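Interim report to the steering committee. The following record documents the input for ABC transporter ATP-binding protein (267 residues).
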Amino acid sequence: MKQISSTPAKIELGHVTHLYLSTTRAFMAVQDINLRVEEGEFICLVGPSGCGKTTLLSLIAGLEKPTAGKVWIDGRKVNGTSRQVGYMLQQDYLFNWRSIEDNVFLGLDIQGIRTKETEEYALHLLDEMELSDVRKFSPLQLSGGMRQRVALVRTLACQPDVLLLDEPFSALDYQTKLKLEDLIFSTLRRHKKTAVLVTHDLSESIAMGDRVYIFSRNPGRINSEIVVPSPIREALPFDARNHDGFQDLFHRVWKEMEVVSDAAKGN
Ligand code: ADP
Ligand code: MG
């Protein structure tokens, strides 16, 4: 199968279908997904639970191989995991017996890229995230929001240019979540990262994304795409929520979600 466009996108999915196989059944998690994400774009995936959002991230990360179709990054077919792609999850997976600094360096160790330079870069990121003061602390001494910031630093320290974020804010209280949204949004923009965020918070998807994809389930497919207009797209997530037109967009996404949720109930 050939790529459709001549200029390679940062991420491209062409007719991606994925089945989970067990000895007794085959389950189609996602079907015929086509998606193009340009360098520096921030896109959001929303949809009912079980519609294949995490599966799609795993396919982009190279953790799963699509049953049919292809995934490309920079025009190269994804074939297993790569340093180029960072993955951040809802759970932070920090080791409580290691200091914050050592948790961050662990990412470098795993990738086999720990040098004086990469350590310095990681410490610079800790500073950017206002975590320098706690670098010798244990994760046990940190709040949920701080722990997620450490997890982000650990991911960014390996200098991936694609970031996959699977509901990274969902375990946090509302205020912390809003602050972290702004911080992650501005950090990723400053470092010119390409990002795919999965969230169940519709307002977060509009506040953070350049585009929002609404998935339907059984099998997981793209039901609709909503392009966020530029004034809202450029604003920090917190300010975006107060923008003219935000409520209209919210209602559009809400309506699309009602359609896919009703369809899911009918199954
Ligand atoms: P979401 O992240 O949107 O909630 P997932 O991608 O986790 O959805 O799952 C999509 C569907 O695939 C669900 O029905 C889920 O039960 C199924 N699924 C996910 N992972 C596996 C697996 N490893 N084996 C079998 N089925 C799976
Ligand atoms: Mg999921």
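DSSP finds nine helices and ten strands in the chain. The committee is asked to note this result when reviewing the revised timeline.
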